[in-house]
Amino acid sequence: MLHTLHKDWLGNVRGDLLSGLVVALALIPEAIAFSIIAGVDPKVGLYASFSIAVVIAVTGGRPGMISAATGAMALLMVSLVKDHGLQYLLAATVLTGILQILAGYLHLGSLMRFVSRSVVTGFVNALAILIFLAQLPELTNVSWHVYALTALGLGIIYGFPLIPKIGRNIPSPLVCIIAVTALSLITDLDVRTVSDLGELPDTLPIFLWPEVPLDFETLKIIFPYSLSLCVVGLLESLMTATIVDDFTDTESDKNKECRGQGFSNVVAGFFGGMAGCAMIGQSVINVKSGGRGRLSTFVAGLFLIIMVVFLSDLISVIPMAALVAVMIMVSIGTFSWDSIRNIKDHPPSSSIVMIATVVVVVLTHNLAIGVLIGVLLAALFFANKVGRFMLVRSHKPDTNSQYYEVVGQVFFASSDAFVRSFDFREVNEMVTIDLNHAHFWDLTAVAALDKVVMKFRREGAEVILVGMNEASRTIVDRLGVHDKEDVSDILDAH
């Protein structure tokens, strides 16, 4: 226990401190932008990012992952804020956290094992595209100075690590932000800065109980929003945790992460913040800047609130071009280029699932819908593939008997093929169906077996089932009708 605590908090102090500073700088404009999307004051997003990052650092299940206010969550809040105001948003945020805590204790995080690698890859590629597209407003209808600063920033990000000795000791995104800001101030360039996004808060957040009636009417208003926020927040957080697992070659506790997201949103709601979740962009920045432990996430939240409250004059002059360069780096680093290079070598079904996930997420800007479509397609392709491996071999030991051997999985996708595999035209006196190498999974499979057995009996044959495994026998005994006592009634019913 003590070893784990030491590793998570003190195992990478210098890397976590520097990466946390970079992430904090990148979080500020994003939190302000997401607040604007949701229709609330910029301080709501900033307070949320501070609260969530600090709490999730302690309670989360994925060290080194960054959680804060996000665009995906902000989009779900628009109508609630517009129709009912900020206080109802804060109440919905608290309820969102409570639902996520319940999800963690119900072990819903374990459902991530049903999300295929193709869906995760599509999710990653879609987010990389969305991150890049989100930077385009900062690069359209602007002066050439913006393009020059952005290009300089990218040059520093990719060039600085090549410098011997110091290149790998200081995160290049941090060098980019400092250098581009210094150049902008020295040359007095007229470019957009952080201050143009909105006013930074000048006070620390305080505990506030949402000013809403504690009655059923309030619950009716906020519950649909809280449920949506809960699902999208957990989905994005668990997908991001899986990606960070791959980046760092470590494992995370998905159910603990669900609970951690819940605790952080409850705290955010009580301290004047909006609901949030894990951020793939900032998590990638953190990892690529050397962040690995919980300290990096904690420091990101702590530095954020210190900078916006006490160092606002310095933060407000950072050119947006510097932060755009950092986010373009994130977009490039997040996209799975191997998924494009290897598309001709992957099974067509995997490529279709990946591309469909990307297209739906990019078009709808809704991660939940995109991942749901991907999971459904993957499930359908898998069911079709498994169903094709089911076969029935037949031969006639003598003129009075017929022998069928069933091999494979019989379920809803293969049940029709199972029935069609038997010959009901010339039926012998004795029909033996060997099930040693078969498994019956669901009600549809049992109904198919009933249909086969009763069709043979209708033609006057005696049917013997042999070799059925215990699991199949259990479901057939419970749901099947072919072996009930009054067979004539069953046949008449059919």
Summarize the structure.
This protein is an alpha/beta fold and 494 residues long. It contains 21 helices and six strands. It folds into two domains: 340 residues, no CATH class; 105 residues, STAS domain (Transcription Regulator spoIIAA, 2-Layer Sandwich).
Summarize the amount of helix as a percent range: 55-70%
- Please work out how many helical segments DSSP would assign: 21
User: How much β-strand is present in the residues?
Assistant: 5-15%
Q: Could you say how many structural domains there are in total? A: 2
* Secondary structure category: alpha/beta
Low-confidence stretches: 485-494
Taking Cα atoms only, what radius of gyration do you get, to the nearest Å? 29 Å
Mean pLDDT: 87
Distance between the termini: 63 Å
Give the CA-based shape. elongated
Strand elements, count: 6
Strands across the major sheet, in which order?
3-4-5-6
Taken in chain order, the helices and strands follow as: HHHEHHHHHHHEHHHHHHHEEHEHEHH
Largest sheet: 4 strands, mixed
